[in-house]
Amino acid sequence: MTNTLESSLVQLGEWLRGELKGQGAGDEGLLAKAEMQNRWFTQESSKSAMHGCGNMLQPDVLSDWLGRYDWSPNPKREKKVGLVLAGNLPMVGWHDVMCVLMTGHTAVVKTSSSDTLLITAAIEAWQSFLPEDEQLKVEWVQGKMGDVDAVIATGSANTNRYFEHYFKDLPRVLRSQRTSVAILDGSETDEDIRALGQDIFQYFGMGCRSVTKLFLPLRFDLDRLFRVWVEWAELGNHNKYANNYDYHKAVWLLNQEPLIENGFVLLKEDPNFFSPVGSLFYSFYSDETALRDHLEQHAEQLQCVATKNPQLYEDHSVSAVKFGQTQSPLPWDYADGVDTISFLLGLYS
Q1: What is the set of domains in the chain, with CATH numbers?
Q2: Starting from the edge strand earliest in sequence, which strands make up the sheet with 211-217, in order?
Q3: CA Rg, the chain, in Å?
Q4: Which residues on neighbouring strands pair with residue 107, listed in sequence order?
Q5: pLDDT 10s digits, 91-125
Q6: pTM for the full model?
């Protein structure tokens, strides 16, 4: 990692956070175009996602992250790394793209058709902070990936079966669909519940770090949640979100399934982790140790756990964070727990 490259990443962080006037998260034209391409990408959502990416490049955070690896020059040939990006959230594949370029490889990027603007703009901005003779190695593809030396791909369980077969002869990181859950113990303040609302409702609950399932102590007062979360009622005015809400409400009522609703989220008691957009599953528990063991047994489905006491999960394979922090990962909080930088540096050996 050269000093020039590290310096450019710090500048890129400023761009992403909108600290350069009219650029990055402050570029209203860019945000409007992204929303026109994908109505889930509201300007607020895109701005939040770009801020999150930019916060990873704060000088002290970046220094901590880079200091965890050996960046000694490697004489062996850099590789072409294929990147198949998801499109469920704004900038969702950015971390992988950045990691590939940071490690000196060529990024062969296949963006989602619903998110072609923001990552492209970020690459262009990054390049502008580098000397003219130091070019980022990026290739954009739309159809077949072509010849690559390794691949990082994100998809559903069905898509990953295809990826596993198609890329079976290559070093690969295949990320499957995951979600996040929250555990409440009954001692939460309104501020804790308000922070949890951020974990649930930001990005319409569509990300792997979005909380889609609550575990509640017996006799927990569900009305507490609705009273605090009323500030998210505007979600009910978003056409796509409202369509999901209305659809699942109709189906579940037709099936005579018990529901609790407030006009913008459906609460349904359900053993599953993955709740549809516009809804939130919950279950009651009586033994927190047994619950932690249950989550450990299903770790491959979970990205993180939101809880008042993350320290209880220090020895678990599922990372735990405080309420309000699921959508704010640090750069070393790798998706699915796979260290992307180590994987990419390992391609040189």
Answers
A1: 3-177 (3.40.605.10), 179-321 (3.40.309.10)
A2: 260-261, 266-269, 279-285, 211-217, 179-183, 302-307, 319-321
A3: 21
A4: 81, 138
A5: 999 999 999 999 999 999 999 988 999 999 999 99
A6: 0.94
CA-based nearest residue to 59, from 131, 11, 5: 11
Distance (Å, whole) CA 56 – CA 66: 11
> What is the layout of strands, in order, in the sheet containing 80-84?
138-140, 106-110, 80-84, 150-154, 172-175
The separation between the first and the last C-alpha atoms of the chain, rounded to the nearest angstrom, is: 17
Q: Are 188 and 308 in contact (CB under 8 A)?
A: yes
Question: SS3 breakdown of the chain: % helix, strand, coil, rounded to 5?
Answer: 45, 15, 40
Phi-psi region of 324 (alpha: psi -120 to 50; beta: other; left: phi over 0): left
What are the tens digits of pLDDT across the range 283-341?
999 999 999 999 999 999 999 999 999 998 888 889 999 999 999 999 999 999 999 99
Q: At 196, give phi and psi (nearest 5°).
A: -60, -35
Partners of 2 in the beta sheet? none
Alpha carbons within 13 angstroms on the beta-carbon side of residue 176 total 10
The percentage of residues in the chain with a pLDDT greater than 90, rounded to a whole number, is 87
